Amino acid sequence: MNTTTLSSRLLLPKQAFLFDLEALYRQLQRVKDRRKRRGVRYPLAELLMIGILAKLAGQSSSRARAQWAQLRQRELAHLFALRRKTMPHFSTWSRVLGWAVDPGEVERVVGRFFAKQVQKRLRPGERHLCLDGKTLRGTIPIGSTQGVHLLAAYQRRQSCWRKCK
Question: How far is it, in rounded angstroms, from Cα 151 to Cα 12?
C-alpha cells in the first residue's frame, strides 16, 4: 500500500489561530472523489474534514484518526449532521486516503485555505474570544463519566502601542 504525507510546504503558524469550519468544508467539497457511488457510506468532504481535525489534534495514522473520531463520534455526528452516527473504521481511512483522493489535490486545497486564514486580520469592531475548558482532576465520581468542568474565557490582549503613545 502506498502512503502519502502532506509535504512540508504546508506551513502552519506555531501559535493558535482561528479558522471557519464551514469555509474549510466548502473548500473540501471541491476535492474530486474517485470512489464509485455504490457502497459510499461517508461523503468525502466530511471524511476529509474529520481527518483534518484529527490531524490538527496530533493524530497522524489511520488507526489514530479512527480512534480520535470514535471518541468524539457524538459531537462529530452532530456537528456535521451525519446520516450515520458511527465513525469510519481505520481501514476506511486507509482506503479513502490511499486511493480515493489525489493527495496533491488535497494538499493544494487545504494549503490554499490555511494560507488565506493565516493572512486574515480582524476587521474593525471584531474581537476574538479564546475559550479553554477542562474537567477538573479528581472530580469524577466512581461509576460516572462527568465531573466538575472549568471553562475559561478571555479576550486576547490588544496591542495598544499606537493608542498609548
Answer: 27
Residues 6+ apart with CB under 8 A from 124: none
CA distance 36 to 92: 14
Helix (H) or strand (E) holding 149: strand 149-155
Q: Residue 57 carries which side chain, given as an amino acid letter?
A: A
Domain spans, the chain: 21-119, 129-164
Question: What's the pTM value of the predicted model, to 2 decimals?
Answer: 0.63
Which residue has better confidence, 59 or 8?
59
8 A C-beta contact, residue 54 and residue 64: yes
Among the listed residues 20, 21, 7, the one whose alpha carbon sits nearest the alpha carbon of residue 78:
21
**95 or 158: which carries more pLDDT confidence?**
95
Rounded (5°) CA angle 6-11-16: 115
pLDDT at position 145 is 78
Longest Cα–Cα distance in the chain: 66
Residue 152 CB neighbours (<10 A) = 9
Of 111, 81, 95, nearest to 39 by C-alpha is 95
